[in-house]
Specification:
This protein has helices at residues 8-11, 32-35, 48-56; strands at residues 2-6, 28-31, 43-47. The chain has 96 residues and is α+β, with helices and mostly antiparallel strands. It has a domain at 2-56. A 3-stranded antiparallel beta sheet has the order 2-1-3. The mean pLDDT is 74.
Amino acid sequence: MRYLLINPEEIAAQTDVTYKTRTPDGRVVLTEGEAKALDNFSAQFVTAAALRELLAGQPGQPPAAPEPEPEPGQPEEGTEEDTPEEDTPEATNTLN
């Protein structure tokens, strides 16, 4: 997933940026989906890994960046598609 770094002055009239994550230089971090509703702004695109590195040294921010969304068509980690099926026999009732 890619994120956009935008100067808050450029989008302040279009959306509330009060509680958005910010970079150390003051730019607002938005996902591509959040930015679709906005227009007439300039932005820098960054990947989730680059954003994580950028925010890692910032005081007052959580150590991890927002979790990236899985790509369409790819199974999520930990889903049934990833876990192997166990070869255990069915339990039988021996209390007859």
